[in-house]
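REQUEST FORM: STRUCTURE PREDICTION
Request ID: SP-0412
Submitted by: Lab K.M.
Chain count: 1
Length (residues): 109
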Amino acid sequence: MNNQKLTRRSVLEKSAALPVAGVALFALTACGEEKPKGLVCADPNSLSMAENSLRTSAHYVEKSADAAKTCSVCSFFAAGEPPPCGKCEIFQGPVNAGGHCDSWAKKEA
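STATUS: Completed
RESULT:
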């Protein structure tokens, strides 16, 4: 067994090193890590308040949670440039072909 006494000073010194070690660990894990960026066909900052409000109320997302219900197979979608962007008749503007909203309706064959 160790004969070293546990003093308040030694506890304070060791606990002061913990935040420094935490910051160093966080910096190392974040270093060189790039978050994947999805294609945003319509920058929300370039849209009017009314357009943003419509998209928000229809719960529009750039990537659909259901692969079978994407904008590309919606009756309101028309393909556009650059792919995978297109135009939505409801939003009167660009949308992602892989997106989805509450107004989604399957395109009739």
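NOTES: The two ends are 80 Å apart (CA to CA).
Reviewed by: T.R.
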